[in-house]
From TrEMBL:
This is CBM56 domain-containing protein. The lineage of its organism: Bacteria, Bacillati, Actinomycetota, Actinomycetes, Pseudonocardiales. The keyword Signal applies. It comes from the Bacteria. SUPFAM superfamilies: Pectin lyase-like (SSF51126). Keywords: Signal. The keyword Signal applies. Residues 1-39 form the signal peptide. It comes from Amycolatopsis oliviviridis. Residues 36-126 form the CBM56 domain.
Length: 778
């Protein structure tokens, strides 16, 4: 973000009626819906009317304003998405052009008290039983085992045949027939499908097995480690004054936007379980604040954890409040509301706010955030002057505000789906999520890292009903990376099977860090920064199950790297749906601190990867000599080649070509924030390969058949040459399976223009920093 913007008029929380005309396609890829048992939320059935027609019925337990049916399988017709007809509380739709044996896959989207929800997929066979075979189950379930395992497959549908694969490919009716237990002697993924004549095939089920513990060979590390000089550990037995003195000293060192934004100092404030009274932690640059309890309520701060426009030079705005975080705490705000007025790379996770939450500066100046996940706010959350915000799997007492792009998934108390007026996009659930690994202290005073379980169709905080589900690892299986460590020592720890815990600091790498073992955890606190030297790629992750990356900042070195982080080798095809790799609170920077260069920041080749809150940023400001069109060069922020990749909270800014290139099939994005580069020197030198002006912010590959995205914003500020134009912000193939919802473009301070929102659709950006909105495409 730059420093000078015209602030749109603040909204006062007026919401308007629910926009019933939003696209019925919103859930067509399985997003946005809370899956509920029929007896609780709805009942549904499909009935044959005659030789060529069937009637589908849906009766919600709570009256719905609309119900949509989505179905595939009609011969010669693609996916259909239809608003059903209400008949006294039961919604109906008749499907024709059927023949005996025609198999339909169908599901519903329905409104319930504001947000909309989706059901699971159902199967109907015309002239048959109309049932779907139950998915195969695995015994033992997927996981890590010290030696080979005999795996039994079964289906609850009597008489069903199971076919399976063990190479990560999707099973079909011609795959190997299951006749007895399968011996899994090496790490692999078993995928299976169940079939029965006259019924619809089951959904594919998968289980990943890691044979031979990757952690057992890690030389034993300390269970109460030395975290080094930049980690502050507080306990309730310390006096409030001594704690406050340390917090204040760190804040004074890290608060100034002009002098601390590109410092190499980094800190973590960690609070052991207990109650802390009168504590006020103002959070500056490169500072992580976190509780060391297993759940947020284990650490209670009666006081404040605050980010504001702290400095006179900020002039009341929070556009550069980057690189700071709060996690795993309960806060009882001293003034009734916690203030978290941040821009990018400032996650607010696993927080229990017992009061209100203000996401804007006390001055009501502009802010450019932001991200919340797995949190609860008992009172009102107010965004007011925030440009955009994404909330995942949380709970709000209420919500107020919206400037351009506010997105919610799996969040109770979220506003209704009203984009663009106000600009709120609400999905009932998050399709797949897994919260971050985190450090905690057990009852014996030893440190462990908790690993939350994978959730599907999640809604609300993972800890809301008795604690987060998952497992944990002792710190004895983590190599603690501190000052003095080199790429060689870190790679040695990885090769021995250790997980990594990065402490605050800046780490120069003269060789690539190679994460090769399944289920490896790489966890950082206090914004540990990895700088590749001599043009090496900073980190590569093998195409294995269950790697978790969290809390890292990749800062490009002065010799160009091809990629800062690569997940999976090119051509990776293994199925990781049961245990995906997660990239969470991982940030990328090219320039600003040093004159960095990297062709790509993040490349994702592995299937099923979850990208959960990243900010990839080519700097538009910073230390002298570290930024400029020919100085901090970077083509693309994110390249996705793997299939079935999900991005929740994707922030990508200022790259010189396409900001995001998505080549994988079945990709999904919930919330995208982007700025086009400010420093394009001229139009003639900035044209995409198709000859159009500029490079789209988000390009879906020409060969992609299925892709869907919700809540996307792209802004231009061609400060160096306001005559520059971008033809469109989003570039996608014109196929029925490629669908975009709730998009916005803005010309900041009317520096240049964006002609269309997506392809040739959507109006040119208007003057006065006003948005051009488009509800759906196609």
């Amino acid at each position: 973000m730059d420093r000078i913007f015209v602030q749109p008029k603040r909204r006062k929380g007026v919401r308007g009626a629910l926009a019933l005309g939003l696209s019925a396609l919103l859930i067509a890829a399985g997003l946005g819906g809370a899956t509920a048992a029929a007896a609780v939320d709805y009942s549904q059935n499909a009935t044959s009317l005659n030789a060529t027609q069937a009637q589908f019925s849906f009766t919600p337990a709570t009256p719905a304003r609309y119900v949509d049916i989505h179905y595939t399988g009609v011969p010669g017709v693609g996916q259909q998405n239809v608003r059903m007809t209400d008949n006294g509380g039961t919604w109906r739709h008749t499907v024709g052009s059927l023949a005996a044996g025609t198999v339909l896959d169908y599901w519903f989207t329905y409104e319930k008290n504001g947000p909309q929800y989706d059901t699971p997929h159902f199967g109907y066979t015309h002239g048959g039983s109309g049932t779907t075979v139950a998915s195969p189950t695995f015994d033992p379930p997927g996981g890590s085992y010290p030696s080979a395992r005999s795996v039994t497959l079964s289906s609850a549908t009597a008489g069903a045949t199971i076919r399976y694969t063990v190479d990560g490919s999707t099973p079909t009716a011609s795959s190997t027939v299951y006749t007895g237990p399968i011996t899994v002697s090496a790490s692999s993924t078993v995928s299976a499908i169940a079939l029965k004549s006259g019924s619809a095939n089951s959904p594919v089920a998968s289980a990943s097995y890691t044979i031979g513990s990757t952690q057992a060979t890690c030389p034993a590390q300390a269970e109460v480690p030395d975290f080094g000089p930049n980690v502050r550990i507080f306990d309730p037995g310390m006096s409030a004054s001594s704690i406050q003195a340390k917090l204040d000293a760190d804040f004074n060192a890290q608060k100034d936007t002009l002098t601390a934004q590109f410092t190499e100092r980094r800190y973590a404030h960690l609070f052991k379980p207990g109650v802390y009274n009168g504590i006020h932690d103002n959070v500056g640059y490169y500072t992580s604040v976190a509780g060391l309890g297993q759940n947020p309520g284990d650490v209670v701060i009666n006081g404040d954890v605050t980010v504001d426009a702290f400095n006179e030079s900020d002039k009341g705005v929070a556009l550069q409040n980057f690189w700071r975080s709060a996690e795993n705490l309960a806060v009882v705000p001293s003034s009734g509301a916690t203030r978290w007025a941040v821009a990018q790379a400032a996650p607010f996770r696993r927080m229990d706010i017992r009061g209100g939450l203000d996401l804007f500066p006390a001055s009501y100046g502009f802010a450019s955030g932001g991200y919340t996940a797995d949190s609860k706010v008992s009172g009102k959350t107010a965004s007011i002057s925030q440009q955009q915000w994404y909330t995942r799997d949380s709970s709000y007492g209420s919500w107020e505000g919206g400037v351009w792009n506010m997105v919610f998934s799996g969040t109770s108390g979220a506003p209704a789906n009203t984009f663009p007026n106000p600009p709120e996009t609400t999905l009932g659930t998050t399709p797949v999520s897994r919260d971050v690994p985190y450090l905690y202290v057990d009852g014996g005073g030893k440190y462990r890292v908790f690993l939350p379980s994978l959730r599907t169709n999640a809604s609300g905080p993972s800890w809301a009903n008795g604690g987060t589900q998952g497992s944990s690892l002792p710190m004895s299986q983590f190599y603690v990376v501190k000052a003095g460590d080199t790429a060689s020592s870190i790679n040695n720890a990885l090769s021995q099977g250790c997980n990594l815990f990065f402490t605050p600091g800046v780490y120069h790498l003269n060789q690539t860090l190679n994460v090769t073992k399944a289920n490896t955890v790489v966890l950082g606190v206090g914004y540990p920064t990895l700088v590749p030297d001599n043009g090496v790629d900073a980190m590569k992750v093998a195409d294995v199950d269950g790697v978790r990356l969290k809390g890292l900042l990749f800062d490009a070195g002065t010799t160009n790297s091809q990629s800062l982080l690569t997940v999976g080798q090119a051509g990776s095809a293994a199925n990781h749906s049961a245990n995906p790799t997660t990239v969470q609170d991982v940030f990328f920077r090219i320039g600003g601190q040093i004159a960095g260069k990297a062709t790509n920041s993040l490349i994702v080749n592995s299937r099923d990867t979850i990208i959960d809150h990243i900010w990839a940023w080519r700097a538009d400001h910073g230390n002298a000599g570290t930024y400029g069109w020919t100085v901090n060069t970077g083509d693309t922020g994110v390249v996705v080649n793997g299939d079935n990749v999900l991005a929740t909270g994707l922030f990508v800014e200022h790259y010189q070509k396409y900001q995001v290139i998505w080549n994988g099939q079945n990709g999904r994005t919930i919330f995208f924030q982007n700025e086009i580069p400010y420093d394009v020197p001229d139009q003639a030198g900035w044209k995409s390969p198709n000859g159009l002006n500029g490079y789209a912010a988000y390009k879906v590959g020409d060969n992609v058949n299925t892709h869907e995205a919700w809540g996307l914003g792209s802004y231009c500020f061609f400060n160096d040459n306001p005559a520059v134009n971008l033809y469109h912000a989003f570039e996608v193939p014109n196929r029925s399976g490629v669908r975009f919802h709730n998009m916005v473009t803005v010309s900041l301070n009317y520096k240049g223009t964006i002609t269309h929102v997506i392809n040739d659709a959507g109006a040119v950006t208007p003057p006065d920093t006003r948005p051009s909105n488009l509800v759906s495409y196609p």
